[in-house]
Structures are given as C-alpha cells and as structure tokens.
Amino acid sequence: MSLPKFTYVAPASLDEAVTLAADLGDKCVFIAGGTDILVAMKDRVITPEWVIDLKGIPGMDELSYIPGEGLKVGALAKLRAIETSEIVLEKYLAVADAAHSMACRQIRAKGTMAGNLCNASPCADMTPILLALNASVKTFRKHPECGRTIPLQDFFIGLKKTALTRDEIVTQIEIPEPGPRECAAYVKHTFRKAMDIGIVGAAAWLKMDGETCVDCRIALGGAGPTAIRAYGAEALLVGQRLTGALIDEVGVRAAECCSPRRDVGPRRYHRVHPEYRKDMIRVFTVRSIRRALERRGI
Amino acid sequence: MRIIRMKLNDEQIEALVQENCTLLDFLRNQLGATGTKKGCEEGECGACTVLINGVPMNSCLMLAVEADGQEITTIEGIARNGELSPLQKAFIEKWGLQCGFCTPGMIMSATALLKENPSPTEFEIREAIAGNLCRCTGYAKIVEAISAAADAIKEA
Amino acid sequence: MSTERSENLKYYDGLRKIYKKPEDYEFVGKSYNRIDAEDKVTGRAKCTADIYLPGMLYGKLKRSPFAHAKIISIDTSRAEALPGVKCVITGKDFRGGKLGNPEAFKELADKESLCKDKVRFVGDEVAAVAAVDEETAIEAVELIDVVYEEFPCALDPVEAMKEDASVIHEPGTQNLSMLTTMQSGDCDKAFSEADYTDKHRYSTQMMVHAALEPHGAVATWENNEITIWTTTQGAHVSRFWIAHGLGIPQSQVRVIKPYLGGGFGGKLDVFPHELCACLMSMKTGRPVKIILDRKEVFYGTRTRHPMELEIETAFRKDGTMLAKRCRHVLDGGAYGGSGVAANVLSLIWATLPYKVANIDMMARRPYTNKPAAGAMRGYAASQVHFANEVHMDEVAEELGIDPVELRRINACVPGYEGPTGLQVTSCAFKETLDKAAEAIGWEERKNGLKRGEGIGFAGSGFVSGTGFPVLETPKYHSASTTVRLNREGYATIFTGANDIGQGSDTVMTMIVAEELGLKMDEVKIVQSDTTLTPFDSGSFGSRVTFLAGNAARRAVGDAKLSLLEVVAENWNCQPEDIVMKDHRVFKRGDSTNDISFSEAVWMYEEKHYGKSVVGVGSFAHDGDKEIYKKNRGNYAAAYSFSTGAASVEVDEETGCIDLSELVLAHDCGQPLNLRAVEGQVEGSVHMGLGFALFEECRFDETGKMLNPTFLDYRFPTALDMPRIRTITCGQPDEEGPFGAKEAGEGSTPPVAPAIVNAINRATGLKFHDLPITPEKVWRALKARKAAEAAGVQEGRNCGKP
Question: Which residue of C has its CA nearest to B46?
C-alpha cells in the first residue's frame, strides 16, 4: 500500500519542531525511526497531514556514558547502535539484550529506543528493562520550562498513551549508573526466535549483598495495558537470602500482581489466553531473576 | 514534491520525489531499479533490504526524502565492472536461491554482515538474515552460501 | 512389478536406443548451476511487478467487507469523478463465464470475475478501478459505494453442511462443493475379524502459501489481442480461463509467466485481478497493472484446506493393517477452483504409503464464507498424512510394536496395486524408513530419551506426476515440447513448463544439454508463453520433472534420432552407435568418425535442403476422464515415498518446542541434481515445520482474517529452522526422465507428523490438532498435572516410563 499524502518537514532544531507541533496539533506526527508510524500510516490507522521528521535535529543521536551519572541515550540513537555499543555491552548488557531481542537487524538499524517508548505498546521490549533500571525520560517543550525529566514509571498513562503533551519531544533517556553488586536481565517469551512481538517480557534488577538481595525492581511487559512494576514480588525479595524456592515464589507473586486481560487492538489475534499469559509472567519473572544472578552485572 | 540528492550505487543522483513516496517505490517506479523487491511493504519480509551508508534497512519503511544526502547501495550495485561479488558467486554455486524473490535482500543483509564480521558463525549468519524471510529454501543453502562466501573472501 | 507397458508408453520407445547411457552422463546426478541464478543474484530477474509499460495504469480492487451478503447496489460515480481515474468496472462489465480450474468439470466453475449479486467471503471482489497511479486507485476504491444486505455467514465446515445453514451457492446442496466416496474389499468383515480396532479424530488448521512475491498481473490490449504477464503456475490453463472469463477466443489471449517469486499452489488458480487488468486494458486501450498487497494475498487468494479427519482402523496383533475407514471434512472456503481436487486426493492419500485392502472412505468439501481453499504443496497429503502418521504411532504403541517396524510391516512395495487402482512401480519406502531411523540414531537413542526429549517418525506416499491435465486434451496428455537444433552450435527448447522457483527451467535445459552433449548455456529456453510454447498443464501435482521432463527428453530424443539417422547413414552405422557428448558427435570406439555438433546439424540440413532439425515430444499418462469421474484408477505414472524423522525438546514450563534435527529420506528415483533435491527437501521441512508449530490463519466471528501479515502469521525465520539432513533413496524409475521422480511435494507431508510424534513421545501426551502451539502444550501438560494431582489415572498409557 502506498502512503497517504502528507507534508514532510524536517526541522533543524527542537525549538522549530515543537513550535510546529504546537501549531499543527493533532494534524501532525513526529517520526524518529518511523518504523512503527509508517506502517500505521500505510494501514490508514493514522492519516496525519504533516510528518515532522526529527532526524535533522543535531546532537540527538548520541550515546554517552558519564561515570557517576550513567548512560544518556539520545532520542535519535538507533537500537542497533545501542545493542552494539561497547559501553552498553560492558555496563548495560541487559539493555543491549532487550534492544537485540526486537524485530530484526534492518528494523533495529532504523528504529530508536525513544520511539519504542513513545509508541507505548504494552509489549514494547525496551520498557521493562528501563523501568527495572529506574530510567527516566528527558523532554523538550516550550512551556512550561523548556522540558522536564519524567521518571519512566510515570511515563505511561494507558494503552498506547504517554504523559507527553502534544508539543513535547523526548530528547534523551537516562539510565542511572550501575552500582557495585547490582545485576539485571531482560528475558522475552516469543513463539518465533526473531521477528516476533513478545507475549511476555520480564526484566529484573537486583542489588545484592552476598546471597542477600538488598534492593530490587521487577518490571513486566505484556502484563496489562502498559508495562508495570511488580511491587508485590519485589517486596518478597528485599532483605532476603535468595533461594530457588524464594525465587519461584516471587514468580508466583509477580503473576498475581498483574491482571492480563484479553488482548485488544490490532494485534488481538496474538490472543493467548490470559491464564497462559499469567503463567508465563511467573515463568519469565523467575528466568529474569535467575539470569540476572548468573550474570552478576547489568 | 521535493528535490533529493543521494549517492546511489556510487553515482550521484538528483530527483524530484513525492513526499509520501517510499525509498522502495522511488527506486522501483522512478529509477526502474527493480532488483529491490516488494514483498510486504511493512518491514516484515526483508525483500526490499538496501544498504543506507552500509547499513541494511528496509526501503519500504523509509521515505525517499529521508534518504536525501545518504549513500544507498542496492543489489544493482553489488557486482563491480561485471564481476560478481563473492556472495553472489556463492549463492549461485551453493544453490542459495530458488524463486529468487528474497535473494536481493538476502545478499544485501549478508553483504553488510561480512563487512562487519568476516568470520561469522552459523548462528551469527542466521541472526543477520532473521529479518529476511524465505519461503522456498528453508534457509539451509542460503546459510551455506554466506559461509562459503566468507571463506572465499578470506582466501582472496 | 507390472511388466506390460501400455501403447502410450511404448509410443516413444523407438527413441530409447539413442538416449544417453548412464555411463556417458555429463549432468545427471552431477553438480551444475541453475540457469537463472545469475539473473536472480544481480537483481536482473524481472517478476511481474517489475514490468513497467509506457502509459501504464494502476488497478485496485474493491473488496467485500462482509463474509456473506447480497449486493443491493454499486455506485461508482464518485470514483469515476476522481481526477486520475480512467476506468471503473463491476461484474456487469464481464461478458464471459465463471472461473474454475478443471475444464473437465467446467460445471463446477463458480467464481465470477467480479461479484454481481452476492459476496461470499471478506475480500470477495466487487469492482475494480484503473487510475494513473496506485494512490489514486486506492482513493477511488474508497469512493465506490456498495450497499449490501448481510446474510448470516457459515464459517464452520461442519455447521455449513447442516440443513439450517446459510446457503452459500446452491440451495439444497448442504453447501457441498464436492462429495467423494471410495470403497473396496469388505471393511465390516475385516473389522469384525481384527485383533485391534480404533477410532480417532484429527484436525488441521488453515495455512497459506505465503510466497514472497505477491500475486499480480500486467495486461495490455493491442492488435485485437490481450497479452498478460501474470504470476501463474500454469500459463496455458490461465489462458483458457482468462479467455473464458472475458468471453473471447483463446487465440486472442497470450499469457506470459515472467520470473515467479514462489507459488506452492497459491498461483494455480485464475484470479479476478487478472481478469480485471485485462478488461480494463480493453476498455482504456492502455496497459493496466494490478499487484495485490500482502494483506490481499493473505485473505483474498487461496489457502490450504483445513481438515477434520476421522479414522478407524483394524489391525491384526502382528501389526498387519486389515482395513481402514475414514471420514474427511475439508473446509473449502467460498469457492471451488483448484480446490475441488482436494476431496478425492485426500482419500487417495489415505491409501498410501501402507498396504490396505479393505477401505470405506468418504470426503466432503463444504463451502464456507472464508477465502477459497486450493492446492498447496503436498496437496491434501499434508493433512491426511499428518492424521494417518500420528495415528500409526498410536497403533504401534497399543500393539507394542516399534513405530518404525509397524511402518515396515505395512509398507507399500514395488508392484503393489492399491485398493483404488494406484499402481506402485518403483518404491523404496522401506529403505527410506531404515535410513531415516539410522540417521536419527533411533535404536541407540530410543530407550535413553530424557524428560522432554522425543524422536518421531512419519512416512508419506505421493504422486510423482499427477496425470491429470486440467484442460481437456487429446489422449489426456499434459505436456508437450519442441526442440530445435541450430547449426550455429546450440539448441532451443520450447516448453510450456512453468518455473515457479523450483528450477524447472534448469531441469528442462539440462535434459536437452545432456542428450545433445551441449553445454547448459548452449541450450536456450523459451518457456511459459502461450504464444511461443506448446501446451503444458502447469506446476502442480509434482508433475513437472516427470511429465514435462519426459516430454522434453522425448522432444530432444526425436530431434536427436532424426539427426543421427543422417549421420549414421553417412558413416555406415546405426544411430545407436553414435554418441553425442562434449559438443562432439562420434561413433563409439572409432576416432575417425568424429564431428562437431554444428557439423552434424549442417550435414542434416544439407541432406534435407535446409530443413531444420526439430523434435517434438509429449507425455500422456495412461488414463482418461473416467478415472476422475469414477475416482478409480491409476492417478500417476509413478509414486514417490519418504520418511521424516524429527528430534525435539519440549520446554515443559512454556510449552515451546525446539526442533533440533530433521532427517528426511526421500525416494526420488535418480536425482537429477543433488542440490536441487536437497533444496526442495529443505523447503519442505520449512513448510512442514510451519504447519506443525507456527502457522495458522485466524478469523473473528464475522469471518475477517485477524492475522494477514508476515509478522502475525509467523512462518519460520532462519533462526527457527533445525539442522536438516536429506537422504536420497531408491533406484532410477523405469519411466522417469533419466530415472527421476519428484522431490518437491512428497517430502512435505511427513514433516509435521514426525514432529508431532516426537512431541507426543517427549511429553507422553496425544496431540491430534494442529498447530501445536506453546499454549496448547502448556494447557495439556497442566491438565495432566491436575488430573494426576487429583489422583485420577488416565485411561490410556501416556507412553512415558
């Protein structure tokens, strides 16, 4: 299917981009990689009159690591750049894994982490691991204040909905510096080994003192309309010596924390029964914790 | 309509394109470069894979205007001066194709892989072509061909 | 083995003496490249969508949003008013007849080029537009206003046969598109005397071909003739139906098949987009191109018949199968087309690859309000062999006989005549069983399988070349070929065989090169163009290598004999004393009589006042329409046999299945090229694996397909494929070209049941319904656990120690 007609603009600055967006309102859409948006446009799910391409804005494709602060992922950084970045592979392997688990190489070469977050799909692969790592999203807008920092856990407000306002652009994702004795992992359940949307994605971050977990975060994709933190499951771990039995129990609790409903939207054929999805949340929560512990690093 | 300039298979070109025209349609409809195939138009089959600055991407998910200023390589630019690339030769010799519809995209993905990783394992080859669907071959002879090409490049 | 050869087969026996001897083979069984490979690796290969003609318009179809509805009115005025729109047509613009597939059963043709009164599935074609570009055509289609009155839809095939079901075509037919029965021997007696009897049900899902190239056509009306480049698997059959649909003579239709990006059966039928491109070109005087988008290919072309199978068998305790009853229900979807053959085929497959004397079988093919089901690789055999082979393992377990041994006990052998009249000639089924079992390490591994590990086997029998020519032809022949020898040092073959990616152009070229001692590039092929090439019925039923290959060999043999008779006369010897090899023509064992190919052709033309050396050949299977009316007789000139062996691991937590290895032993007679055979088998494994575990078209309650994309339909990627080992078995077949039999289709059906049998062994469960999704495995394991926890003993042995 060819694309519907639209006007294409590639602003050279954030300022220009948000001014345009403020003027155009619902008539425009931003693209970074465009891998989700162009498909939706071909299918006539959305028919914007204007496409605002952010790629021309300089300086937003950088990946930088600042010791003591952490990783700053520019909104235009490609998933492929993230998964192959030496610093990401060294210090944030679980993030690289999550990026790598998506679609295929061609898509990851064009798609961005920011785009994956802004698409706000319940099964987005970047969300659980970034939630587990306590990431936040930096934005730009004219009013109020030239933008803000939104903790990722406040970023998703519903199915395919984010806290962003119409004229607000994500500029960067910030992932805190991993501390010593911290470990993390992301595991995903798919039917095919590539080119597949996760049925469930589970991310675990743990801070260990010997065999004891002193802090943790567990985040789940595919568990509801947005990715969620499994607070109840986390509570079971904190302060405890980690045994196989405890980890299994955490899995059970994680599954209880969420209430997957029947899938909705265009992907509803994916429909696995909520019961199965729930049990997979249990299985993959356990697997994410196990993998994190095996790895002893992020 | 917009004017775009790009380097296509080492040649500088300039063209007037519709803003809603994908790079794939631009290549096929406007330039007649039909080696790049249209299988699904939604980034799910890889038949339209081209190299953008050496990196494989789906040309169906890229606007022609997005390609402005980039270096594009298509299957038509793989053979040099009538000489087939080692990958092309290996696909022929190992029967790494049947209907041939996925072949240009496969070769583009494989070309990028071997540039980046001259000695890929079988798993790495399979990963690199996971976004290139093939319905005929079961991928076996494609994987074999890419592996043989890697060996041939190293020996050369 | 039957030694009496028919007059038909003997007709060309005079050529046998000059055919190349196996010791002289330069290509057969050796390694050579595909003739189209360079075109395909360079991007030069032009498919239908790659054709651009000056002034060409782009067409798009208006499709029904309802599964079953009456068309009250169609208003095209808004579409016609849109700038850039050049033509809008509806059903009333067509003057020809309805579209179908077999000419012999023309009365079954049930598809209008565009629907006039009612629509029968979501996607049924009601109008078409041609415009200056695709975008305008898409916009115009949206502006066509169709008023429908919705009917209740019948989506379930069993429900569709009930009295109160919505009528899809004709009232009073129980919505049956086909009904077939076959009986032989005395089933009741055999059942009453058996040591073991059983009854099981199986089912398979809707699958699609998913060839990478979407269907499409480019048509142009010039000089009172339609030329259409189209994605067809059978150019001559397409010509027949296109002419029929347009209401013009076949002489005024030229069908050309450009490079085809895969078919698998999905491009066998004639489709409305082809007729619409033709008619809109006739109306506008400009070329019209219509390429379906991927979603249209999914929901608007053809599918593999979903089937429900009920099987009852009777065995002696020594493992001998005595009788079989079966009841098949094939979900035909909205139309017949090539799908009508599935019914009878499903019953024929049920009599292979095991001997059974007493049968009582029935197949019904109801219409439903879903996309029409048609031919697909391993046509009907994939479903039937799945059920039968999974069933075979269950019998083996009940009788306490090793599953490979049970298959050996009942295996078809050379000379076997089946209960419906199939005559097995060459047959190495037992060899395929033995070799597959050995390769997978069955004897060593079978008692040491760990929890979650399983090995499974499945056999298959298939036609090596269906004899059915689709159209009515003299002597029911289905392939004819012309070969011309040129004094400039090359030969030209004119063949109607349709290369759909499998490599038939290479095979035809090789056959000619082999017989003439030419290099492959000294044989030029003219193929699948109805104006330039003789009749061929198409690429289906595993017929191309065997039937078209035989026609090619006979054609080149005919030319060769004419040539050698002249040379032999000059050399005072017999034609059979002369060898053509390595571009030379020479008398065996006599170095003085040795000339080049060109000199030999010159010699012939010199003698015959410039007349060219031309050979013609054909292949007709012994049989006539009666076979297909009575459903009794020998359907093919030969049969292929194979065994699949799968090794799987099951993740009991998630239900995910990892297929680590698949061995496929296939009796293809003499392989003409080992790489080609392996390629066909590897492709079969891909499709069989998809059938077993991944692929399924799903519909909502209104008949709308839910997953018409590659992302959602999920066929295996490169990472999902197992290690594949292909083992070729058997001996050269007496009638096959150079002894070859088919390799593309018969190797598909054993894959899925081998995988399912491995899963059943790994889990101790009994799966009867495809596909085996992780959720299905998870659910079954959970149910068993719950039953065990409740202290309930399962009635049947679950097979796990």
Answer: C212
